[in-house]
Amino acid sequence: MSLKGGLACLGNSSFGAPRAFKGKIAGARFLGRALSAAEVTACATINPDGKPLDVPPSTAATQADRIPVVDISDDAPRQVVVAEGAKDRYEGHPTTLLADDGRTLFCVWTTGHGGPCGQMARSDDGGLTWTRLDATLPEVYGRTHRNCPVLQKMKGPDGKTRYFVYSAKAKEGRGLGILMSEDLGKTWREMPFQAHLSAGMPPTGFMALKDGSCALFGQVFKSSAKAKDRPSDDQAVWMSVSKDGGIIWGEPRIVAEADKRNLCEPCCLRSPDGSSLVLIMRENRHRGRSMMCFSRDEGQTWTTPADTPWALTGDRHEGVLLPDGRYVIAFRDRAIGSDTYGQFMAWVGTWDDIVNVRPGQCRIHLLRHHGLGNVFPGADCDTGYPGVELLKDGTLVCTTYTRHFADDRQSSVALTRFKIEEIDSLYKKLK
């Protein structure tokens, strides 16, 4: 339940199509103050019957799980607003693409929560300034495509690099809508609808495979009878392969599922030595940690999903491998008991940290989300769908949507820029 401007809403109060609350309420109180971190944690572990949640012991945060947080969220000189929200306008759910020159960036997003597509911008200077490209896109894109568009770059067997935008195709079931550019983003055209690829939420994971093919990873409801997008409507993660650089995609197959777990929004990363892949997945029941699985044969087989480190628990992971072998992985913080729950965060750590479920080096608070106070977990965590790019000069550009301004403006698309050496320096001061 949220209260704002004298209006009350019980259910999903985010912008876009409202969803009524269904279920039992654990408790309701009106408070004239913000809750402490400990009180927020307590709210996350209450059932309607007053008993503790059925959370596996491994999901609980111990002192050993907690790692230092480097906070650059209020460092304004690092930040750029790509698309500013307004009192009556919500800019959300961006992803980014880095061109082969290591400097040019593209960004796509929606208006409204999970709303219509049609927005695109390009930066020629590593994210410092942006030019809108909406007018270069097909008219049908803004009219029939929606919900969290995903940018990807693929090289085909013909040696040509193609850019793609994946989205949900409105009024055509839950299949995949696609835009393609064959001239490095100058012009775009709509591709045939891919009805066999589930895309209520567009596929978020991508990996170039060693044989020259490309793998795409998305999500699908385990039961077609339960497709209401409730936390209990569990999903599994699928993989599809293209052998022609993204023009035609093969039949998807399920590669990750777990009992009473809602796996979605996969992020695929390769190990520094190139031998292994990992899928890091959002767990949408939010009663435990995120989950991960591994492949050592280019995605032909995968391990059974298991918990990630506590500090990697979040929604909509995106990451890059640094030259020194560490990873920077950004996400919406969903770690139970976290002081930054619902904020836009990044995790810094190694492949060994991931494989061995170790905490990692540190977290980074990237941008501050000025929501409704984040009083209850899940009530106002509407931020964190990211783009993460490593420029050729070593600058990391992390982009998301957030209530960037502490006023009545809705979500903006914004980014922060930093180098890992700056994070290391700030990290040393915390020790």
Topology summary:
Elements: E1 2-4, E2 7-9, E3 11-12, E4 19-20, H1 37-43, E5 69-71, E6 79-83, E7 91-98, E8 105-111, E9 119-123, E10 131-132, H2 139-144, E11 145-155, E12 161-169, E13 176-181, E14 189-190, E15 205-208, E16 214-221, E17 235-242, E18 253-256, E19 263-270, E20 277-283, E21 291-295, E22 306-307, E23 314-321, E24 326-333, E25 344-350, H3 351-355, E26 362-367, E27 387-390, E28 395-402, E29 412-419, H4 420-430
Parallel strand pairs: 5-26
Antiparallel strand pairs: 1-2, 3-4, 6-29, 7-8, 8-9, 9-10, 11-12, 12-13, 13-14, 15-16, 16-17, 17-18, 19-20, 20-21, 21-22, 23-24, 24-25, 25-26, 27-28, 28-29
How would you describe this structure to a colleague?
- By secondary structure, the protein is mainly beta.
- It has one domain: 6 Propeller (Neuraminidase).
- It contains four helices and 29 strands.
- The chain has helices spanning 37-43, 139-144, 351-355, 420-430, and strands at residues 2-4, 7-9, 11-12, 19-20, 69-71, 79-83, 91-98, 105-111, 119-123, 131-132, 145-155, 161-169, 176-181, 189-190, 205-208, 214-221, 235-242, 253-256, 263-270, 277-283, 291-295, 306-307, 314-321, 326-333, 344-350, 362-367, 387-390, 395-402, 412-419.
- The strands form eight sheets. It has a five-stranded mixed beta sheet with strand order 5-26-25-24-23. The chain has a four-stranded antiparallel beta sheet with strand order 6-29-28-27.
- A hairpin with a 7-residue loop joins strand 13 and strand 14.
- The two termini are 39 Å apart.
- 43% of the residues are buried.
- Residues 1-8, 12-19, 44-57 and 373-379 have low confidence and may be disordered.
